[in-house]
Design brief:
Helices cover 59% and strands 0% of the residues. The protein has helices spanning 34-37, 53-65, 83-90, 94-105, 111-117, 120-132, 141-172, 181-193, 202-216, 219-228, 239-251, 258-262, 267-281, 286-290, 316-334, 337-350, 359-369, 377-388, 405-424, 436-452, 457-475, 478-484, 491-503, 509-528, 536-556, 573-577, 584-587. The chain starts with 33 loop residues before the first helix and ends in a 5-residue tail after the last helix.
Length: 592
């Protein structure tokens, strides 16, 4: 079975010669226009690019395989996929399928999904499977969309990738038996990283995967064996930790055997690899990385990637980084945590905060000594201005300001309010309130933040977040809580007390905390958004966060209406004009 061969063993060729073109005149891959010009009920928009000939061959094989009675996914009682047209006609589904096709045509499908669904045989098969096997009502268009996009990402994509890999391996004269560790690794890498299917991409994409598994050899399997032995709790071995361990062991030139891993011969090396992976996996402070030879900051902003959106120009990591920056702005600047920590250090340096030794004294001194290495308030303000267009600080000639962000954010919050109002006046039984406007506003922010939270901004926000965490660590220490925490010994009491007494500012920590945490959840929604995979639970969670953010913003504005969602600029300006508040002048001499 071609699909049961998956990988890499004896590479005898790395030729870049042209792969043979499809020659079968009935080959649906050979005549790609057939999937874009056919006007029957099962036609979806075809790809707006030239499909690689290898992918065309794989499309043909995949479309035939779904109707092969000997294939494990063939549904005998459904008959051939061509029966979908008859079922649609006889069961009166035409209107539903037309709505389904319109919905799918308007979605941000990736290249592979678009090409697979543009094939009438595959599309028809998935419609029948959704109703007969998935239990989805044909009239439930949203349910049909979710089922079909899920299935095309699972079995259809696996078959499609397997066919492309097989053709390239055969052409390269590379052979591997199914079930080998290298074969399984190749399949995993393909599903994880994807295979480019545009003209000229397939062979290069698969060659790149082969390069990875040649380099890694059986090391990923050895890490798995070590993890399974239970020396360290298995739930600590996340995908990123395992990959970091593989990279570490390859980097030191490890030459292990599976038997040696099983009997513990190499345990010390695996322990070192795990420790190194844990260090790299945790959020790191770029300041510490600068002071450590060879160290690199690797914070991923605490959110895993979902579907690969790079082909669409969307960078989820940029969006999550923007969410982290918004959090730093609200907690660090508007709640004045940076200022409060500075004020405490200033008190301590003057002798008015009597802490002479111990961990708290060490933390205060460390915070004091790092001040010259940290981003200054003005540098932070320039980043907020560049990414969010808040404040009016001069960012310097040639530096673009993201002037569109406040408008896009305003639209998203406004559409959330509109949705809430409509949902409240619609019965649950007839709840057909459209989400389209929210989805479009979310997509607009995806592109906006992907384009503007880039360059050095990632390291800057990582450093600023580490700075913020260090400030919070000082504020919540027992010695500080005893002095300023009031009866409840609360972090928030310390912030409000020091802001009032030392900085002359009144801070509503509860409101600012809501803006920061719920705002961050909204940024996570934007980063992870993919219309094809949005669940009702995830959407409801976004709406709840948006509502909480809007109410907190209204409270901050002095009791304004909840639907007055003018963005994040109005009351933010003062915070950026004078980021240090009342304490700015007192700290000016520290940097002399």
């Amino acid at each position: 079975n071609r699909r049961r061969r998956a990988a890499v063993a004896n590479a005898t060729s790395t030729s870049s010669a042209r792969f043979p073109e499809p020659t079968d005149p009935d080959h649906p891959g050979a005549i790609m226009s057939s999937i874009t010009t056919n006007t029957d009920i099962l036609t979806l928009n075809g790809p707006g690019f030239t499909v690689d000939p290898i992918a065309q061959n794989a499309l043909y094989t995949t479309s035939r395989y779904v109707d092969d009675p000997e294939s494990p996914i063939y549904d005998t009682f459904l008959g051939a996929a061509s029966a979908a047209r008859d079922a649609i006609s006889t069961k009166g589904w035409s209107n539903y399928v037309d709505q389904l096709s319109t919905k799918l045509n308007g979605m941000n499908l990736d290249d592979t999904q678009r090409v697979l669904l543009a094939n009438a045989d595959i599309y028809g098969r998935l419609i029948l499977r959704a109703v007969e096997k998935g239990g989805v009502q044909a009239s439930d268009v949203s349910g049909m969309v979710n089922y079909i996009t899920r299935e095309v990402r699972s079995f259809a994509r696996q078959l499609f990738y397997a066919d492309m890999i097989t053709e390239v391996l055969n052409y390269r004269r590379i052979s591997i038996e199914a079930g080998t560790t290298l074969g399984q690794r190749l399949a995993e890498l393909a599903l994880d990283r994807g295979i480019g299917i545009r003209s000229g991409q397939v062979a290069g994409s698969i060659d790149a995967l082969l390069d990875v598994i040649y380099k890694e050899g059986e090391m990923p399997a050895m890490v798995d064996v070590y993890a399974e032995r239970g020396i360290i709790a298995q739930n600590n071995f996340t995908g990123s930790v395992r990959q970091a361990m593989v990279d570490y062991l390859i980097g030191i030139g490890a030459n292990f055997t599976i038997d040696g891993v099983k009997n513990g011969t190499y345990d010390p090396y695996f322990a070192l690899a795990y420790a190194d992976a844990q260090t790299a996996h945790e959020a790191s402070d770029p300041i510490d990385a600068v002071n450590s030879t060879g160290a690199v900051s690797t914070w991923n902003f605490n959110v895993d990637l979902f579907e690969s959106l790079e082909e669409q120009g969307i960078a989820p990591s940029n969006i999550r980084a923007a969410g982290a920056l918004d959090y730093v702005f609200n907690i660090g600047e508007r709640m004045m945590v940076f200022d409060v920590a500075n004020a405490l250090v200033l008190r301590w340096s003057r002798g008015t905060l009597d802490i002479t030794e111990g961990d708290t004294a060490s933390a205060l001194y460390r915070f004091y000594k790092k001040r010259q290495d940290r981003n200054t308030p003005q540098e932070r303000a320039m980043l907020y201005r560049r990414v969010f267009d808040v404040g009016d600080i001069d960012v310097g000639g040639g530096t673009p300001v993201n002037a569109a962000f406040p408008r896009y954010w305003h639209v998203l919050m406004t559409e959330a309010v509109n949705y809430i109002r409509k949902a409240e006046t619609t019965s649950k039984e007839d709840n057909q309130v459209s989400r389209a406007s929210i989805y479009q506003a979310t997509k607009d922010l995806q592109y906006n933040l992907s384009d503007n939270m880039n360059g050095m901004a990632h390291l800057q926000v990582t450093e600023d977040y580490a700075h913020l965490q260090e400030a919070i660590d000082i504020i919540k220490r027992g010695d500080i809580l005893d002095h300023f925490g009031g009866r409840s010994k609360s972090l928030w009491n310390v912030i409000e007390t020091v802001a009032r007494d030392d900085l002359g500012r009144r801070v509503s920590t509860s409101t600012m905390r809501t803006l920061a945490t719920e705002g961050n959840k909204i940024f996570q929604w934007i980063a992870d958004f993919n219309e094809a995979t949005v669940s009702d639970e995830r959407f409801d969670a976004f709406v709840a966060s948006a509502e909480a953010w809007i109410l907190a913003r209204a409270a901050l504005d002095g009791g304004g209406q909840a639907d007055d969602v003018g963005g994040t600029t109005d009351d933010a300006d003062s915070a950026y004009d004078d980021p240090l508040g009342g304490g700015a002048d007192e700290f000016a001499d520290w940097n002399d």
